[in-house]
Design goal:
The protein has about 290 residues and is of the alpha+beta class. Helices cover about 75% and strands about 10% of the residues. It contains ten helices and four strands; from the N terminus they run H-H-E-H-H-H-H-E-E-H-H-E-H-H. It has helices at about 1-20, 20-40, 60-65, 65-70, 75-85, 95-100, 120-180, 185-225, 245-270, 275-290, and strands at about 45-55, 100-105, 110-120, 230. A four-stranded antiparallel sheet has the order 2-3-1-4. A hairpin with a 5-residue loop joins strand 2 (about 100-105) and strand 3 (about 110-120). Helix 2 (about 20-40) runs antiparallel to helix 9, helix 5 crosses helix 7 (about 120-180) and helix 7 packs antiparallel against helix 8.
């Protein structure tokens, strides 16, 4: 019996939907056409982005992702971007201009993604490139300072290494002279040889230490890098907003649901007119009492 009632209920629902098919289809098509029209009317918004690698040198101001993000999104840098590019951004629109720009950290790297959403693709590309250029200009003095510091240390080590190699050469000449010397006793020759060898060994140890330091400084200098562009900004082909297909799909779904809901509402009031009249009477009585 219960199964039969379920079948009847399902059949009634299908009959209601079929009966109100024109209404449902009309609301569905109206929602789809409205969404399509609005999507085509709204001006497209494009996203231009670039990815940079932060510098590798001991200055967290420009090599820390958090600090670099603050600099890139600072009012001072963005106002310079507007000034240099001669952008038409009134003071009251500066906040919306800033909100359209995002600087995001890329996990497990020292990379930053800089993006801007704008209706003007070429302008967006210019903004992103200018931001990178200004950031690099600000970090360049610190980068060069650390590079010069290492270069000075390298020159100092190179000078000391050259001097120690000269001393080693002279010490070996002295050792050869001792070996070929005549007129001294074997005991005296052994004593001189032993002292000279000890001194030569000390010089060789210093030379190895200086050479290790020299190679380490060279490697450190070679690893120094300022900010670099990993992926340059390009003018996008397709907009990110509005998403016409998604808008139409969502509008169609909402229109279909609204049509079905409206069909059931109309069907209910069509079969329950007394309930509607009672409600109107109750409302009238309430109004008279007031």
């Amino acid at each position: 019996m219960k199964h039969l009632e379920e079948e009847l209920d399902l059949r009634d629902l299908i009959l209601i939907l079929w009966k109100r098919r024109r209404l449902i289809l009309g609301i569905f098509l109206a929602a789809v056409f409205a969404a399509a029209a609005i999507s085509f009317i709204i001006p497209p918004t494009y996203e231009v982005s670039t990815i940079i690698a932060l510098g590798v040198f001991p200055d967290p101001t420009y090599t820390s992702q958090a600090s670099a993000r603050e600099i890139l999104l600072s009012d001072e840098l963005l106002l310079t971007v507007i000034k240099d590019l001669k952008l038409n951004v009134p003071r009251e629109k500066f906040r919306s201009f800033k909100e359209a720009i995002k600087v995001e950290s890329i996990k497990d790297t020292n990379f930053l993604k800089i993006s801007v959403q704008t209706p003007n693709r070429s302008e967006g590309k210019a903004i992103v490139e200018k931001m990178v250029e200004l950031f690099k200009e600000r970090s360049e003095p610190s980068y060069q300072q650390h590079r010069q510091l290492l270069a000075n240390q390298l020159n100092s080590v190179r000078t000391r290494l050259s001097a120690i190699e000269t001393d080693i050469k002279k010490t070996r000449e002295v050792l050869n002279a001792i070996e070929s010397a005549s007129g001294i006793s074997p005991v005296e020759k052994d004593l001189r040889r032993s002292r000279t060898l000890e001194y030569l060994q000390s010089e060789e140890s210093q030379r190895i230490e200086l050479l290790d330091r020299y190679l380490a400084l060279q490697k450190e200098i070679n690893e120094l890098k300022n900010v670099q562009v990993i992926r340059g900004a390009r003018e996008p082909v397709y907009p990110v907003k509005p998403n016409k297909k998604l808008n139409v799909a969502l509008a169609g779904m909402l229109g279909l649901m609204s049509g079905i809901f409206m069909a059931f509402i109309l069907e209910y009031f069509q079969h329950n007119p007394l309930d509607l009249s009672k409600r109107e009477g109750i409302s009238a009585q309430n109004s008279q009492k007031l």
